[in-house]
Every structure is written in C-alpha cells, then in structure tokens.
Design brief:
About 5% of the residues have low confidence. This protein starts with a helix and ends with a helix. The chain has a four-stranded antiparallel beta sheet with strand order 2-3-6-5, sandwiched between helices. Strands 1-4 form a two-stranded antiparallel ribbon. 15% of the residues are buried. The longest helix has 31 residues. The protein is an alpha+beta fold. It is elongated.
Length: 216
C-alpha cells in the first residue's frame, strides 16, 4: 500500500529540513574555524555552534519559565553568603590583624551571580614580605573561608584573581550562575595564556572593572 500524498509531503519536508540544518551546521562550523584562531578544526567550529544553540535555547527557555514564575535554579542567589556592612568591617580588621598593614575596603559589588570584594593596604606584614604570589593567594583564600566558618558555619568557594601587597580582590560565587562565570573566566585565562601571538588586556584588569563601576 502506497503512502498518501500528505505523508509523502511531510516526510519530504522533514528530510529537507534535516539536510538543510546539516548544511548550515557544516557551513557555520567551517566559517567559525576560518574566523576564530582558537578553533583548530571544522569539528571544533561545529561544536561551538551547537554550544551556542544550546545556550540560546537555554536562555529563551528559562526566560519563558521565569515569566511563568519558575526561575532558573542557577540564578537563585544564596543570601547566606552575602556580607553585611558590619561583617565587611570585621573582615577588614581580620585582614589587618593577620596579613596586611592598614587595609581599606575599596570595592564591594554583586554581578554575574558573584560577590566581588577588594581591599587596598599599605603593605603586607613584615613576616610576609618574602611571600610568593601563590602563597599570598592561599593565605587570602583561607582567611576568608575561616571568617565564613566563624560567622556562618559555611566554607564558600573563594577565587582570588588579584593578590599583591598593596591591593587584592576576591570573588565568592553566590549561585550556579556565579560558578559558571568563574569557570568561563578560568577558561579565558587559559586561552589567553596559550595565545602567545596576540596581545590582550590582563585578566586582572577585567576583574578590576567591577571596582571602577562600584566607585562611580
């Protein structure tokens, strides 16, 4: 028994749509490969396109769900990690007692699902003058986590993108979106490190933007 015309029409359209989408995908992957220096093969270009499609679909889906009263769980802020003004003052004094000479709060803001906090100081304490960069980063991380354990009985993830004797910044993700942001920044850092032929703005300057916005 031969299929009727409606069925043939439907199957023909499905096949045409499939091959049309496949053709667009291959062409887009090739163009991405040609235009993006970080993409080494056409397959990688196709993966980038599929990843972009996924991100766009996810944003549209969760926008619609949000309009219906069901927000994306990744965007829900963990309010228990947010520091009050008094707690920030306590943290400043803790840094002053343990690591830095006369620290001053320079910036405090929330963006991209993260809490950005930065301090300036006269210098590190004398016993830390010869401390290496990675050691100073760990010292700041452990100090912040110890502070949270004392006041909130929580040990948050702490990222320190800037650490120097006279200025440092740390970031605490407040949501799943915040963790995704930090992961994306880490991938960007690795990409910039691997790209030796291209001059780029240091990642520290990217993070410092949030401080400048907060000052304004």
């Amino acid at each position: 028994m031969l299929p009727d015309r409606k069925m043939l029409f439907f199957l023909t359209n499905v096949i045409l749509l499939f091959f049309g989408f496949l053709g667009i995908l291959l062409l887009g992957g090739w163009l991405w490969y040609k235009l993006d220096n970080t993409v080494t093969t056409v397959d990688d270009g196709i993966r980038q396109i599929l990843r972009s499609f996924k991100e766009i679909f996810s944003k549209v889906f969760w926008f619609c769900m949000g309009e219906l009263g069901h927000p994306n769980p990744a965007t829900i802020i963990n309010q228990s990690l947010w520091l009050t003004n008094d707690e920030l003052n306590e943290l400043k004094h803790l840094f002053g007692e343990k690591i830095f000479e006369i620290p001053i709060l320079e910036g405090y803001s929330q963006a991209e699902g993260c809490q950005f906090i930065s301090f300036s100081a006269v210098n590190v304490k004398e016993k830390y003058l010869d401390l290496e960069y990675e050691q100073l980063v760990r010292l700041i991380e452990h100090t912040v986590q110890s502070f949270y354990l004392d006041i909130r009985q929580q040990k948050p993830f702490v990222k320190v993108p800037i650490a120097s004797p006279k200025y440092f910044q740390f970031i605490i993700p407040l949501s799943g979106q915040g963790l995704e942001y930090l992961d994306a920044q880490e991938k960007l850092r690795n990409t910039l490190t691997d790209s030796s032929n291209t001059e780029v703005e240091p990642l520290e300057e990217v993070f410092r933007i949030f401080d400048d916005e907060d000052e304004r």
